[in-house]
Design goal:
Layout (H helix, E strand, L loop, with lengths): L2 H18 L4 E4 L6 H8 L5 E4 L3 H15 L3 E5 L3 H4 L2 H10 L3 E7 L25 E4 L8 H16 L5 E7 L33 H12 L4 E5 L7 H12 L3 E3 L15 E2 L2 H4 L3 H6 L4 E5 L6 H9 L5 E6 L13 E4 L2 H10 L9 H17 L9 H11 L4 E5 L3 H9 L7 E5 L9 H10 L4 E6 H6 L5 H6 L3 E7 L18 H6 L6 H7 L3 E5 L2 H11 L5 E7 L2 H20 L4
Parallel strand pairs: 1-2, 1-3, 3-4, 4-6, 5-6, 7-8, 7-10, 8-9, 10-11, 11-12, 13-14, 13-15, 15-16, 16-18, 17-18
Helix pairs in contact: 1-2, 1-6, 3-5, 3-16, 7-12, 8-12, 13-22, 14-15, 14-21
Length: about 575
């Protein structure tokens, strides 16, 4: 069997097994050494192929598809620094638990470590940021069964326990062009492959009893739900909370703020409430049961740290892991969150045990929302940009949020809604890179998608806009343009004005209209509320890429938020006067 015939069958068996294992999408960045992979993927009608020229953008684009579908997405690149450009997205995928199959083409072993061009050390190059690594054997006729099993295992490893990225390094010798005219190329025998057959992890009967007694006791408890992606968890948590009469602090990425589930016990404005020291003391709980990752709110983190180990903490995780950055003592409960809620809820009679503790949180939450959402003055502010966006965003859509200030403004100003809106962000590593590309990956799945981000994040991933133009993807982007990094204004270095703008404020001074036109996007620059609302409405009627540039003054942002927090604290504390 010739080299070309062996290469072709090896690639066909590999890619064919990926498809059989459920891979539906591949994102390819062009290159020479990856020719066999790229051409073989392109032969498959059952795998969506996306061509993304910039490897960094490509990886975040794949991340977006995988986030939305909750299925592994394959990435293909050539050898050398192309693979290094995947690194930021792989780190994000690892920490945010998103399944990616990273397929890096490589030089054959004899061309490694000898100064060959475009050859770098690719074995285990992503270190601990992938769940599994394998350096594939060079194509041989006797290894067709082997390569199928490695493909199946890659999918299995990426989706077992916590989802995450895996890396297959694929050395290939020239010539690199497959021959797809070979007879019966796709009719190879389906061999048994390893599969995962796993059910939901559950609580023991003794543990169910422990939590039933805790939740029905007269102790003041809280359920906290941080960032998580399970769409079924909202109803399970809120049903349990309603039965036992306990407040639920819902992070914007918890999926609890939007939808048609019961939200009577949901508290969205806890971040604003916990900015006040007197309110912190008034709201001290006896115990906390947390689902999902640590909430976005820094005020919440500092609040629980202030109590040390005097508050009992229970963290419910489907599989063993350690996500507790506060440093307080915590008891980890290895149980699927749905199982936890359903098992405990089944042991509790219908009817809420509402009390003064729940009433206090509800009243404070209502007061806080009234002040946060009070009609703004004529000057644009980033908080009401979110509030009006939540009014305009279509039902059954995705809001993807950039890091730094946008996610914090969403935390404060995106309150409960009956709309089915999935709120997502790259909160694994909390970076500002690749935000546009991730949102476009979500949009590529067909769901109506809105991206809210700052001007620095927008600038950081302009290359990502190319695929939107090439594939006519629909995306509304709201760019909060305050000419720099607004979040640094909240940090201590802002009080030392010398060199602040140069080192932290980093004003861009870029006319984004010219940039967006280059990528075939519609562009509207807004400086008043009526234009903003109309621009949002129009963007959801348009096809393609719609960019709304929302101009604000960075210097006003801190004062605006502090005024709101002070108003809330004064109003609540006045109840006792």
């Amino acid at each position: 069997m010739s080299h070309t015939e062996v290469l072709t069958k090896y690639m066909v068996h590999f890619v064919g097994q990926l498809a059989s294992s459920g891979v539906e999408d591949v994102v390819i960045s062009p290159g020479s050494r990856s020719t066999p992979l790229a051409m073989t993927f392109r032969q498959r009608d059952d795998i969506n192929h996306w061509i993304n020229l910039d490897e960094r953008s490509a990886a975040f684009f794949a991340l977006g598809i995988a986030k939305e579908k909750q299925k592994p997405v394959a990435l293909v690149c050539t050898s050398g620094t192309a693979a290094a450009n995947y690194y930021p997205a792989i780190v994000e995928a690892y920490y945010s638990r998103v399944p990616l199959l990273v397929l890096t083409a490589d030089r054959p072993h004899e061309l490694r470590d000898v100064g060959a061009p475009q050859a770098i050390e690719q074995t285990e190059m992503y270190g601990k940021y992938v769940k599994w690594f394998h350096d594939l054997a060079l194509p041989e006729e006797s290894l067709l069964s082997y390569v199928k099993k490695q493909a199946a295992r890659a999918v299995m490893e990426s989706t077992s326990e916590h989802n995450g990225p895996v890396h297959l390094n694929i050395p290939l010798r020239e010539p690199l062009t497959p021959d797809f005219s070979l007879p019966e190329l796709w009719s190879h025998e389906q061999e048994p492959i390893p599969e995962i057959m796993a059910g939901l992890t559950t609580l023991s009967k003794d543990n169910v009893k422990v939590f039933k007694e805790l939740l029905l006791s007269d102790r003041n408890g809280l359920i906290v739900c941080g960032p998580q992606t399970n769409p079924d968890l909202a109803e399970a948590i809120t049903e349990l909370a309603s039965k036992v009469g306990i407040p639920v602090l819902a992070d914007p990425l918890s999926q609890l703020r939007a939808g048609d589930h019961d939200k009577r016990n949901v508290v969205e404005s806890y971040d604003a409430l916990l900015k006040s020291d007197p309110l912190k003391r008034k709201l001290q709980p006896d115990y906390i049961i947390r689902f999902g990752a640590m909430p976005v709110s820094k005020a919440y983190l500092q609040w629980i740290q202030s109590y040390g180990n005097t508050v009992e903490h229970f963290i419910v995780e489907e599989h063993s892991s350690y996500r507790e950055p506060s440093g307080v003592a915590a008891q980890f409960v290895w149980c699927h969150p749905l199982s936890f809620c359903k098992q405990v809820s089944a042991e509790i009679s219908e009817g809420s045990t509402e009390d003064n503790w729940l009433d206090l949180w509800r009243k404070m939450n209502i007061e806080a929302k009234e002040h946060m959402l009070a009609a703004p003055d004529e000057r644009l502010n980033e908080g009401h940009a979110v509030a009006y966006l939540s009014d305009a965003i279509p039902d059954d859509s995705v809001l993807f949020v950039g890091n730094s200030m946008p996610i914090r403004d969403v935390d404060s100003f995106f309150v409960s809604t009956p709309k089915k809106v999935t709120i997502m962000a790259n909160r694994g590593a909390n970076g500002i890179d690749g935000v546009i590309s991730t949102a476009l990956g979500i949009a590529a799945t067909g769901r109506k998608t809105t991206l809210l981000l700052g001007d620095v994040s927008f600038f950081h991933d302009l290359n990502g806009l190319l695929i939107a133009k090439q594939r006519s993807l629909n995306l509304t982007i709201v760019v909060i343009n305050n000419d720099g990094g607004g979040i640094f204004s909240y940090l201590p270095q802002a009080e030392k004005s010398e060199h602040f703008e140069e080192l932290f404020g980093t004003p861009l001074g870029i006319d984004f209209k010219g940039v967006t036109e280059m990528y075939g996007a519609s562009h509207k620059r807004v400086t008043d509320w009526d234009t903003y609302k109309l621009s949002l409405s129009d963007s959801y009627k348009e096809e393609g890429l719609s960019i709304i540039e929302f101009l604000t003054n960075r210097e006003d942002h801190v004062a605006f938020h502090k005024q709101k927090w002070n108003q809330i604290a004064e109003a609540v504390l006045s109840w006792e006067e």
